[in-house]
């Protein structure tokens, strides 16, 4: 799972952001002061840092400088400032993106995912061994960090919903998911889809990953209940 270090001195905002990120599946540590962030950083080893520009006793740019001396971790700066000079300074000092307050939490999530995608190839601090490896007993693998699905080492094109379904099944081998449980794991407007729509996406996934879609080896139907992934 992706680890986020959040540095925000407004405690209510920090709590709201952290709660949202944890609901989205991130592991989140939040601190309110730069000195605490510097102490926690080497222990927590985050995949991405989200930091406010204006912090007690410290400028967020100084914190970025300190992180950059030891890591290439993606850094997203957030601030109430809308001044172009503040955004440019943050980016020149080593921040990878800048998001102005107030912002949508969905946009924050999208910015985080974009930074993680862009850094996936060049991010040297944490090689992608944290990702779930390919099945030793099969030929399917899921890379959650890059949001990609592989069959026999070849990347397979899947839709957003197909990936979300596959991520849940693959990450919980043997667990039986009802259709409603799978729908609940898919965030956003997709939740309003009719129950049998899940069957359509499962059928599509089987055509893409199964040697014989009519006799599936990996995605099994549990009659009267739902589906499970078998290694």
Number of strands: 13
Give the structural class: alpha/beta
N→C terminal distance? 21 Å
What ranges have pLDDT less than 50 throughout 5 or more consecutive residues? 121-137, 188-194
Strand order of the largest sheet: 2-1-3-6-7
Look at the structure and give the mean pLDDT.
Answer: 82
Domain OmpR/PhoB-type: 131-231
DNA-binding region: 131-231
Pfam families: Response_reg (PF00072), Trans_reg_C (PF00486)
InterPro entries: CheY-like_superfamily (IPR011006), OmpR/PhoB-type_DNA-bd (IPR001867), Sig_transdc_resp-reg_C-effctor (IPR016032), Sig_transdc_resp-reg_receiver (IPR001789), WalR-like (IPR039420), WH-like_DNA-bd_sf (IPR036388)
Describe the secondary-structure layout.
Blueprint: E1 3-7, H1 11-23, E2 27-31, H2 34-44, E3 48-52, E4 54-55, E5 58-59, H3 60-68, E6 75-79, H4 84-92, E7 97-100, H5 105-119, E8 140-143, E9 148-151, E10 154-156, H6 160-171, E11 177-178, H7 179-185, H8 197-209, E12 219-222, E13 226-229
What is this structure, in a nutshell?
With 231 residues, this protein is an alpha/beta fold. The protein has helices at residues 11-23, 34-44, 60-68, 84-92, 105-119, 160-171, 179-185, 197-209; strands at 3-7, 27-31, 48-52, 54-55, 58-59, 75-79, 97-100, 140-143, 148-151, 154-156, 177-178, 219-222, 226-229.
Question: How would you sum up this structure, described in words?
Answer:
The strands form four sheets. A five-stranded parallel β-sheet has the order 2-1-3-6-7, with helices on both faces. By secondary structure, the protein is an alpha/beta fold. The chain has helices spanning 11-23, 34-44, 60-68, 84-92, 105-119, 160-171, 179-185, 197-209, and strands at residues 3-7, 27-31, 48-52, 54-55, 58-59, 75-79, 97-100, 140-143, 148-151, 154-156, 177-178, 219-222, 226-229. Helix 6 packs across helix 8. The chain contains eight helices and 13 strands. Strand 4 (54-55) and strand 5 form a beta hairpin. Helix content is 39%, strand content 21%. Residues 121-137 and 188-194 have low confidence and may be disordered. It is elongated, with a radius of gyration of 20 Å. It comes from Paenibacillus tundrae. Pfam families: Response_reg, Trans_reg_C.
